[in-house]
Amino acid sequence: MGFKLFGAGYRRNPIRPLPAVAAEAVRSATGVVLSHRHPDHLDREGMRMLRERKLPVYCTRHDERALRRDGLDARLLVEALPGVHAEEITSRHGRGLMGVLMGAVARFTLAVAGEPSIHLVGDSVLTGTVKEALARLAPDVVVMPAGAANMGVGGDILFSLDETCEVIRSVRGRVILNHMEALDHRPVTRDQARERVRAMGCGGRVFVPEDGEDLSLS
Question: Which end of the chain has fewer beta carbons closer than 10 Å to its terminal beta carbon, N or C?
Fold first, then answer.
């Protein structure tokens, strides 16, 4: 199905196939980190696979009970990983009524001794809590969506490109931009994101990976 409910641009999702390496990545997975339960993050086929393989799903407090009702091995991320400092930070997947309708989402920071700390922003717009967490935690790596998703009503439900640039300017670590060109309601392309990053002079620490591309964070 498509997510662009109003205006031009509606297409059946996904609009790009998974890269060839996706099958091996799924096969080798030992667990899943889930920011929220929207179908572009966890669909029926994904739930079936997780149930069959009995993989743990590390999730938020908001989603834990519902995931267990679905027959999944749901575990609170902030409690379940020995040796990993994990913090869950509530986020907003839109503004106003749209933010309420999109439901609860969260961001996670994961830190292991001797490894780069990672802040997984998840689906969000730029809010005071996003800015506070990034300033307080100073993560080495920030992974954030840059697709400026919009369903045609209610405004953006992901960082606009201007907000993405504001986040990039505010952090010192590396930034990985994702959530582009896979679904019909995300107009920002990878080339557009790269051009803005180059114009900012931040190309050396901001990455816009292609489908299936490997990045080393060590």
Answer: C
- The radius of gyration of the chain's CA atoms, rounded to the nearest angstrom, is 17
pLDDT the model gives residue 191 = 94
Q: What's the rounded Cα separation, in Å, for the pair 120 and 87?
A: 10
The span from the first CA to the last CA of the chain, in angstroms, equals 38
d(CA 112, CA 47): 28
pLDDT value at residue 166: 95
In SS3 terms, the chain reads as CCCCCCCCCCCCCCCCCCCCCHHHHHHHCCCEECCCCCCCCCCHHHHHHHHHHCCEEEECHHHHHHHHHCCCEEEEHHHHCCCCEEEEEEECCCCHHHHHHHCCEEEEEEECCCCCCEEECCCCCCCHHHHHHHHHHCCCEEEEECCCCCCCCCCCCCCCHHHHHHHHHHCCCEEEEECCCCCCCCCCCHHHHHHHHHHHCCCCCEECCCCCCCCCCC
Domains parsed from the chain with CATH numbers: 22-207 (3.60.15.10)
Question: Residue written as tokens 């834990």?
Answer: 64
| CA 1/CA 215 separation, integer angstroms | 31
Q: Which two tokens stand for residue 119?
A: 């802040």
Angle 157-127-208 (CA atoms, 0-180°, nearest 5)?
60
The rounded distance, in Å, linking the Cα atoms of 124 and 99 is 9
